[in-house]
Amino acid sequence: MPDQQINTPVSAWRWLLLTLLVVVLDLGSKWLATEMLVYARPVPLLPFFDLTLLHNPGAAFSFLAGAGGWQRWFFVGVSLIVSIVLLVWLTRTPAQQWWMRLALALILGGALGNLYDRILHGYVVDFISLHYGGWYFPAFNLADSAISVGAAILIIDMLFISGRADKPAR
Questions:
Q1: What is the DSSP letter of 158?
Q2: What is the pTM of this model?
Q3: Residue 63 and which of 2, 73, 86, 114 are 20 to 30 A apart at CA?
């Protein structure tokens, strides 16, 4: 096994630095949006792209946003559990599976950024608004973007990269 890298939690540190970078960029961008934007007043940047400060007490696509407040702690609990699972998964993923580690680091960073918002504010700060004509995609933030990109990489890795490595050649 000399050509395989041994997996240790120490080898996951570089990926945890990426996780930290995602959290810092996410929280910094949310702070700027909160300081510079007026709530719910769009600032057009391109014909299909606005900066619009919004608060989302729900989950993705405002799921359970109007549930009356109990969802805050439900989503905090779910986020904590998911973050712990992602951290353990990241530290146990073999070092040579760097696409998987990249995906997990991005998802973890996004989850922690949104978790911070939920604990501190009771809602997630969103400010990126994409639209076309009268159709508006739900507002999102950099944490949501990191989670989405990480999930896409994870799916691609599982289907085409890591998944193929385990299959015998024909």
A1: I
A2: 0.87
A3: 86
